[in-house]
Design brief:
The complex is a heterodimer of chains A (121) and B (112).
Chain A (H helix, E strand, L loop, with lengths): L2 E5 L2 E3 L5 E8 L8 E6 L5 E7 L6 E3 L7 E6 L4 E6 L8 E8 L8 E4 L3 E5 L2
Parallel strand pairs in A: 2-11
Antiparallel strand pairs in A: 1-3, 3-8, 4-5, 4-9, 5-6, 7-8, 9-10, 9-11
Chain B lengths: L8 E4 L5 E6 L11 E6 L6 E4 L13 E6 L2 E6 L8 E8 L7 E3 L3 E5 L1
Parallel strand pairs in B: 1-9
Antiparallel strand pairs in B: 2-6, 3-4, 3-7, 5-6, 7-8, 7-9
Classes of the chains: A mainly beta (121), B mainly beta (112).
Chain lengths: 121, 112
């Protein structure tokens, strides 16, 4: 069965950095686009970043552009999110989610359990 | 690009049907048949229940159905059950320059 397991979250000071990882299993990772989606405490869902199956196409939400970098290693079946210059408003549970179709279709078929990132001094 | 607009809460009695609306713009829902819906129970990850406006993934109850008219998409839950009590979010591709995908504000469904 499809499984996505995030790791790397934690407490970090404003201006600090974290690298999130998402380990995939149960499907051919290299065939699917992947996304990072976050949810601030008590708030709604916010799409953060997209990477195509090959890694050649990448998009970011304006709220993180220039600070976050998405990447993937298809050989290791892993997705990453490098987060730099973190701000208090980046505090959220971060989910990795497998894309379900083409870029336009943009549905998130499977989700990990999430990893909590807390930015606080 | 702000979030798609959903009612904050919807309630119904067991066995009833309820409908959740999701209003966007011509830059998202109005231009693309790529609306999806997610169910999220407290403390859990979201679960896909509808994609491409009307399609259900394998294993999702046929009590869930989706539709779209103009800039508004809708999710209907028929035969409401206690386990349907959760938060529901819509999502769509967007032509906005600031986002690739936009989510709705979320709707809390309460089973009375």
């Amino acid at each position: 069965q499809v499984q996505l397991v995030e790791s790397g979250g934690g407490l970090v000071k404003p201006g600090g950095s974290l690298r999130l990882s998402c380990a995939a299993s149960g499907f051919t990772f290299s065939d699917y686009d992947m996304n990072w989606i976050r949810q601030a405490p008590g708030r709604g869902l916010e799409w953060v970043s997209y990477i195509s199956s090959s890694g050649s196409t990448i998009y970011y939400a304006d709220s993180v552009k220039g600070r976050f970098t998405i990447s993937r290693d298809n050989a290791k079946k892993s997705l990453y999110l490098q987060m730099n210059n973190l701000k208090a408003e980046d505090t959220a549970v971060y989910y990795c989610a497998r894309g379900g179709g083409t870029l336009l279709r943009g549905y998130f078929h499977f989700w990990g359990q999430g990893t909590l990132v807390t930015v606080s001094s | 690009q702000s979030a798609l607009t959903q009612p904050a809460s919807v309630s119904g009695s067991p066995g009833q049907s309820i409908t959740i609306s999701c209003t966007g713009t011509g830059g998202d829902i109005g231009s693309y048949n790529y609306v999806s819906w997610y169910q999220q129970h407290p403390g859990k990850a979201p679960k896909l229940i509808i994609y491409d406006v009307t399609n259900r993934p394998s294993g999702v109850s046929n009590r869930f159905s989706g539709s779209k008219s103009g800039n508004t998409a809708s999710l209907t839950i028929s035969g409401l059950q206690a386990e349907d009590e959760a938060d529901y979010y819509c999502s769509s591709y967007t032509s906005s320059s600031t986002l690739l995908y936009v989510f709705g504000t979320g709707t809390k469904v309460t089973v009375l």
